[in-house]
Amino acid sequence: MINQELQSKIAELQEFIDERPDAREVRKALAVKLVYQSYKYEEIQTILDVSLGSITIWKQAYEKDGILGLRLKHKGRKSHLNTQQREEVLAWLQTKECWELGELEYKLAFEYDVIYESKRSYYDLFDAAG
């Protein structure tokens, strides 16, 4: 990537970070910015407490859709997962070797438009998945 283009992307991401009140959007943009600043994915994972997969997804979303790719997709909050969605999430959790709260929060928000008010609801899903 040409240095000027790289600097432009970093500046665009910083402006987005400065303007966003939602911590989830800020975390996505910051992860992508750190990638462009040549941080290793493992370093970003440690700094932001996010999964390597999330970093990859966020970077791809930014490269495909620009800043809009980092915006939260949901328009409002649903109170819970329906039965089929819950089973899908539990099956997904059971395929994972390591569970991360941030990754689960992101998956529920991005794929199901569900954001729980209490962390307890996420931990209940972990418990149900065994």
Descriptive notes:
The protein has about 130 residues and is mainly α. It folds into two domains: about 70 residues; about 45 residues, no CATH class. Helix content is about 70%, strand content about 0%. Helix 1 runs antiparallel to helix 2 and helix 2 runs antiparallel to helix 3. The radius of gyration is 16 Å and the shape is elongated. The protein starts with a helix and ends with a helix.
How does the SSE layout of this entry go?
Layout: H1 3-19, H2 23-36, H3 41-48, H4 52-65, H5 83-94, H6 101-112, H7 119-129
Pfam family, one: HTH_23
Protein name: Transposase
InterPro entries: Homeodomain-like_sf (IPR009057)
Task: Briefly summarize what is shown.
By secondary structure, the protein is mostly helical. It is 68% helix and 0% strand.
